[in-house]
Design goal:
The complex is a heterodimer of chains A (64) and B (470). Chain A is built from two helices and no strands. Chain A is mainly alpha-helical. In chain B, helix 3 (28-46) runs antiparallel to helix 4 and helix 11 packs across helix 13. In chain B, strand 2, helix 5 (113-120) and strand 3 form a beta-alpha-beta unit.
């Protein structure tokens, strides 16, 4: 397996976000976590391709 | 054979058992001893059960028998043994949710309301069932407690994450089990194990007293080997719960029997055809033929809905377990831990967009369902893979089994529609179809499933290897 491209934005993002959240990301798990994050990124792109309007609420409207 | 003898068999339905107990043809005590015996015999093969509540069950059975002797009616599920996925609170047991970490939690102090409601109807809890860790699973695998196995072929997956529930019902251990379904975790094991499963409308059944996974998507529901039993369990569990903010304030709406004349049924194509293998497509065609459904319907955006469900699940699951991932990462099942860790890193913008897409998709499906009453789709792309199988062929690509067994269920639970998973009778390994309806129309779906059952199209026999004594 080739060495990861450490300039890859998703690697840098994952390392920074994990550090910020206090999540351990040891070397033996890092590749698997990145793989899952890449899948989420790809699927988020599928969702993001669809336009949403101002009336498309992210969740039911809170009513006091 | 007498009704009393029939009630003790592995293939006895809840209806058989309750009728025999209420009528005095057998005792609840005898029914429970028979169920405990089957559980003990099957456990080395199926690994479906993580705790047996024998003492409690015997006490409860004695109370039921005393009530019958006193001329009282213990209820429509009198003496019926049932078991629950181990994310339900059971008084006196730690709520494991398939994890090692929760084994260190104090025991639950009360039963989940759905357990209490089933017992109020006369049913008797006999145990807790295995599941994928924290319900993030479609396979039934579990690194801590071992995989739950498929009674039709123990070398194969039960499906998950309610794997023990599907396995226990298909193996004849109990006629009714409870599970949870966030993205397909009732419907996938129902399909692979060949039993009926009901994922009710989001908000129909209280989730209080269950270990959560994704608050936006979690549902609880029953498994059974007959539609009548599914209906009995569902009706007993309905009703509002002011203590659960996600539970709708709806009255009990009994799922009345009836015919299906005049129902407009369509078969879902597009995403639901593209990601279905040959067995799944054949099952759908059998159902379509039986129901006279010639219409095909495409739900635009179904693939996008599945993608959005994935993103929400990852992010909510990761957020829920953030503290555990910080403190006890090494105590997770590795297959779960790395997905949850990635989920915890998902940016809010992705989640926001996915949540907003829920409304878009919900409106699109609601519009489509103005012209049809019921939708039919496969429940899983294929029959049960081998337990250790990591990849499968899907739509011309090799994909991971764990994330993709739910590719056909995720778009539906994403918008909370009710679904009955109905196993289609056949000589090979089981597979089910999804019978999908409008919100709050579970009764319609149960009527369709019952019509398929009467026609011999849908059936959930006890797996042959476990039907001895049947």
């Amino acid at each position: 397996m080739s060495a990861p491209d450490e300039d890859d934005p998703i690697l840098r993002y994952a390392d920074a976000a994990a550090a910020l959240l206090g999540l351990p990301l040891p070397e033996d798990r890092r590749a698997a976590v990145i793989e899952h994050l890449r899948l989420a990124h790809r699927l988020a792109g599928v969702v993001g391709d669809h336009p949403v309007g101002a009336s498309d609420e992210p969740a039911p409207v809170f009513r006091p | 054979m007498t009704a009393g003898h029939r009630a003790l068999r592995a293939d006895a339905t809840a209806s058989d058992i309750a009728a025999a107990v209420r009528g005095g043809a057998t005792s609840a005590a005898a029914v429970i001893e028979a169920a405990l015996g089957r559980i003990a015999a099957a456990q080395p093969i199926l690994n479906a059960v993580t705790a047996v509540t024998a003492e409690r069950a015997r006490m409860r059975a004695a109370a039921i028998d005393r009530a019958v002797a006193a001329g009282q009616d213990p209820g429509p599920l009198a003496g019926v043994p049932f078991a629950v996925k181990n994310l339900f609170d059971v008084a006196g047991l730690a709520t494991l949710a398939g994890s090692r970490i929760e084994a260190d939690s104090p025991p639950a102090t009360a039963d989940a309301p759905l357990i209490a409601r089933l017992e109020a109807a006369g049913a008797i809890l006999v145990g807790a069932l295995g599941m994928g860790e924290y319900a993030y699973d479609f396979t039934g695998r579990n690194a801590h407690y071992g995989a739950t196995r498929n009674p039709h072929d123990p070398a194969r997956m039960s499906g998950g994450s309610s794997g023990g529930s599907g396995s226990a019902v298909a193996g004849g251990l109990v006629p009714i089990a409870l599970g949870s379904d966030t993205n397909g975790s009732i419907r996938v094991p129902a399909s692979l194990c060949g039993v009926f499963g009901l994922k009710p409308t989001f908000g129909r059944l209280t989730r209080r007293g269950s270990f959560p996974f994704v608050a936006a998507l979690d549902h609880l529901g029953p498994f059974a080997r007959s539609v009548a039993d599914l209906r009995l369990a569902y009706d007993a569990m309905q009703g509002p719960d002011p203590a659960d903010p996600a539970c709708a304030d709806r009255p009990v709406e009994p799922a009345a029997e009836g015919d299906i004349a005049g129902l407009r049924v369509a078969v879902l194509d597009g995403h639901f055809h593209e990601f279905a293998g040959p067995e799944a497509r054949a099952a759908v065609e059998r159902v379509a033929d039986a129901l006279g459904a010639t219409r095909r319907l495409t739900l635009p955006g179904a693939g996008r809905a599945r993608a959005a469900a994935y993103v929400i699940t990852a992010a909510e699951g990761g957020a829920l377990h953030l503290d555990r991932l910080r403190r006890r990462a090494e105590d997770f099942d590795p297959e779960t831990r790395d997905r949850l860790t990635a989920g915890a890193l998902v940016p809010a913008a992705w989640v926001d967009r996915a949540q907003r897409y829920r409304g878009v998709f919900r409106r699109a499906v609601a519009a489509a369902m103005q012209e049809v009453d019921v939708l039919i789709a496969p429940a899983t792309p294929c029959t049960a893979p081998l337990v250790e199988q990591q990849t499968m062929e899907l739509a011309g690509a090799t994909v991971p089994v764990r994330a993709n067994l739910g590719v056909l269920t995720q778009p539906i639970s994403f918008i909370g529609l009710p679904v009955v998973a109905a196993p289609i009778a056949g000589p090979g390994l089981p597979i089910a179809v999804q019978i999908i309806g409008r919100p709050w129309e579970e009764a319609t779906l149960l009527r369709v499933a019952a019509a398929l059952e009467r026609a011999g199209i849908a059936a959930a026999p006890v797996a042959k290897a476990f039907s001895a004594g049947s």
